[in-house]
Design a protein that fits this description.
It is a single chain. The protein contains five helices and five strands. The protein is an alpha/beta fold. It has a five-stranded mixed beta sheet. Helix 2 links the parallel strand 4 and strand 5. Helix 1 runs parallel beside helix 2 and helix 4 packs across helix 5. It is globular, with a radius of gyration of 15 Å. It starts with a strand and ends in an 8-residue tail after the last helix.
């Protein structure tokens, strides 16, 4: 199974494609889509859509896993991240890729085994599970890989009864 994990944002969108075969993880591709500060916001959204469309077409994922929006005290940031997230969901839908959403708690539980794990623990477990020499940078990229891992751990319950190639 090939999963594209996404950590949504508008300045940085982390992405990571993971193959999950016989209960083992294999990193395929990972990185970040970045947009420039002081750019018209709509142009930033368009850049996210265009770059993610390229990533999806190149990666050919069977599913996209995305982190659910976590509410912060900065309402302007929340609204802008929500808009970027909408663009990301639209891009996935336009590419006919099923979308699965996970909370930060679910991601931490799936990757580190503890829903209240600190970020550093989740990042290190992501590195270990994917057999990487170092934690990917920026942090958004490592977060996206963690979202993909979370989906791999959760796919049986989410996809039960669906006809997916699980290899």
């Amino acid at each position: 199974m090939r999963i594209l994990g996404i950590d949504p944002g508008y300045a940085i969108v982390g992405y990571g494609t993971v193959e999950y075969i016989n209960n083992k993880f294999y990193p395929v591709e990972f990185g970040a889509i970045t947009t420039q500060a002081h750019t018209v916001f709509e142009d930033r959204l368009q850049e996210i859509y265009n770059q993610l469309d390229i990533v999806i077409k190149r990666a050919q994922p069977e599913a996209i896993a995305i982190e659910q929006l976590f509410f912060t005290t900065n309402q302007k940031t929340v609204i802008q991240v929500a808009m970027a997230r909408g663009v990301i969901l639209l891009c996935a839908k336009n590419n006919n890729v099923p979308i699965f959403e996970y909370t930060p708690l679910q991601i931490k539980q799936a990757v580190a085994g503890y829903g209240k794990a600190i970020k550093k623990q989740v990042m290190e477990m992501t590195r270990i599970l994917l057999k990487l020499d170092k934690v990917p940078k920026p942090d958004d990229t490592a977060d996206a890989l963690a979202v993909a891992i979370c989906h791999c751990h959760s796919y049986r319950s989410k996809l039960f009864g669906k006809n997916f190639n699980l290899k």
